Amino acid sequence: MLATTLERVIAIPAISRAAVPSLITVEDVSKVYPSSRGSAPVTALSDVSLSVPQGAIYGIIGRSGAGKSTLLRLLNGLERPTSGRVVVDGAEVSTLPERSLRGVRRRAGMIFQNFNLLSSRTVFENAALPLELAGAKKDAIAKRVALLLDLVGLADKKNRYPAELSGGQKQRVGIARALATEPAVLLCDEATSALDPETTQSILGLLKELNGLTGVTIVLITHEMQVIKSICGHVAVLDSGEVIEKGPVYQVFAHPKSEVTQRFVAEVTGGALPDDLAKDLSPVQGPRRQAVLRIVFTGQHANAPILSRLSRLLDADVTILSGQVDRIGGEPFGNLLVTVPARDGIVEAAIRLVQSHGLRAEALGYAG
């Protein structure tokens, strides 16, 4: 539908991906909020640096309080960094006067968790609001909004009010509104957190299509690794105001370095321990207990028949407890939890055999 619309009306020009290597650059940024009533100053961000390539879908993930929302407010100029530089679409947002920031914000569309639609305005009028505020002419507004509503699949809802829409439809209005001024970047603040899983995938699919067709850069703030896995090409992991890992999504998933990232990745790749197994797992070997191994399948070796080789070469039973094989960033990725006998050096031999096939393995403990 989107491709057909763009072929019919050329109104959203594709952004040249080669024009600017990085659309957003954050250099050594810290944000410290002053103390109030004798309390200690609060450091929301500390020496954060990241670069968002033009045309990318870039995810920023972290738990509540990690500093995600503060970082987003720095990108659109609603906050100033205590130190460091923020450059968006060639403008140094961190030093611009307020008057100049208005133009920058028109080039950075915002999509909100709770939609932020005006209940007294129709779908058409909500999507038209940024253009009205920019002083666009009525005929230009009508043409632009009609195209946008067609793009997001709401052409037949233009005269409806927000109260008459589902959550997914409201977010589609929010996306149309964010695209109204032809922004270089869409800043998405937990854009799918208020939606059910099916609607979330629909909205993420729409954002991915828009990115592919128009080249608009998308920055997604989220606490859900499933969102990162679904559409992002790059990711930065925030924890306590610091970027603890960043890079292409596949590399971060395949080789998570920090404990925080490992937990995020395990949530969506089958690496998390089932509750009953976690309760039963012990670091101490006991009678009639089996060693539990996690095997991580990545890259060109992901399809190796490792379990049959383990069983045959070690002459031992290998039991699958749980597992998941998927594709992330176009590359195969999977996790298996298995048990092997906890005797005669079998655990060590199993780990060496898995590693010899270019895969990763770790012993998690012992289970009955």
Low-confidence parts lasting 5 or more residues at pLDDT below 50? Answer: 1-20
Described by the principal axes of the CA atoms, the overall outline is: elongated
Radius of gyration: 24 Å
Number of helices: 13
* Average predicted confidence as pLDDT: 88
Task: Identify the notable features of this structure and list them briefly.
single chain; 368 residues; alpha/beta; Rossmann fold; Alpha-Beta Plaits; 2 domains; 6-stranded mixed β-sheet; 4-stranded antiparallel β-sheet; 14 strands; 35% helix; 28% strand; elongated; disordered N terminus
What does this protein structure show overall?
The chain has helices at 2-8, 68-75, 98-106, 123-133, 138-151, 167-179, 197-214, 225-231, 249-254, 259-269, 275-280, 306-314, 346-356, and strands at 22-33, 42-53, 57-61, 83-88, 91-92, 108-111, 185-189, 217-222, 234-239, 242-248, 290-298, 319-328, 331-341, 360-367. With 368 residues, it is α/β, with parallel strands linked by helices. The protein has 2 domains: 2-267, Rossmann fold, CATH 3.40.50; 270-367, 2-Layer Sandwich (Alpha-Beta Plaits). The strands form 3 sheets. The chain has a 6-stranded mixed beta sheet with strand order 6-7-8-3-9-10, sandwiched between helices. Helix 7 links the parallel strand 7 and strand 8 (217-222). It is elongated, with a radius of gyration of 24 Å. The N and C termini lie far apart (54 Å).
